[in-house]
Write a structure and sequence with these properties.
Blueprint (H helix, E strand, L loop, with lengths): L1 E6 L2 E4 L4 E9 L1 E12 L6 E7 L4 E3 L7 E6 L4 E6 L8 E11 L6 E4 L3 E6 L1
Parallel strand pairs: 2-11
Antiparallel strand pairs: 1-3, 3-8, 4-5, 4-9, 5-6, 7-8, 9-10, 9-11
Length: 121
């Protein structure tokens, strides 16, 4: 199976910055996209940012201009640089990978356990 380990979450004040990392390991063979989702209490999980292997990126409107997603294909790692953080950014952030494993040719989704981001005002 594929393991995704997120890191970099924590407590930050309004206007601060955090950099999240997610490293994929295990039986991953080929990664086609890497994504960050977030879920706050009482809210649905939403897609925050996505990046393809070719480098194309997309962001939810609420984080445009503040967040930046990037990846290191050689390390199977995706990053989310979060600047100008707001209390409404408080959520658990989850890494998601679309890819294939050695034993399957089908593209599947894989999820990390999440990392908490809390922004105080």
């Amino acid at each position: 199976q594929v393991q995704l380990v997120e890191s970099g979450g924590g407590l930050v004040q309004l206007g601060g910055s955090l950099r999240l990392s997610c490293a994929a390991s295990g039986n991953i063979f080929s990664i086609y996209s890497m994504n960050w989702y977030r879920q706050a209490p009482g809210r649905q999980r939403e897609l925050v940012a996505t990046i393809t292997r070719g480098g194309s990126t997309n962001y939810v409107d609420s984080v445009k201009g503040r967040f930046a997603i990037s990846r290191d294909n050689a390390k199977n790692t995706v990053y989310l640089q979060m600047n100008s953080l707001k209390p409404e950014d408080t959520a658990r952030y989850y890494c998601n990978v679309e890819g294939t494993i050695w034993t399957r040719s089908t593209v599947d989704d894989y999820w990390g356990q999440g990392t908490q981001v809390t922004v105080s005002s």
